[in-house]
Design brief:
The protein is built from no helices and 11 strands. 0% of the residues lie in helices and 55% in strands. It is an all-beta fold.
Length: 115
């Protein structure tokens, strides 16, 4: 099982960022893909998830209206896009496979929001 994430990103405040997570070694449509972030010096924060089988999504209330989850089943890749970025969105963003718990994680993508 592998979850390979895209590289670090630097954005200005107000911009958007899209992070990818390419899955391999398991049946992509049989698991949720969750997104979790960790800001500098902070704990893990759940952002939301997508069910690649039907595209259904769920997100934490604080991100509603700013986050979009998508999944491309042809390439087994999940994406999270966060818009209207603020400095406090600076964090490492992780994807994780989820079936009754997050058992495999990507290595993380650092998103830095700074002018």
């Amino acid at each position: 099982v592998q979850l390979v994430q895209s590289g670090a990103e630097l954005r200005n405040p107000g911009a958007s960022v899209k992070v990818s997570c390419k899955a391999s070694g398991f049946a992509f449509t049989r698991y949720y893909i969750d997104w979790v972030r960790q800001a500098p010096g902070q704990g893990l924060e759940w952002v939301g998830r997508i069910d690649p089988e039907d595209g259904g999504t769920k997100c934490a209330q604080k991100f509603q209206g700013r986050v979009t989850f998508t999944a491309d089943t042809s390439t087994s890749t999940a994406y999270v896009e966060l818009s209207s970025l603020r400095s406090d969105d600076t964090a490492v963003y992780y994807c994780a496979r989820n079936f009754l718990g997050m058992d495999y994680w990507g290595k993380g993508t650092l998103v830095t929001v700074s002018s």
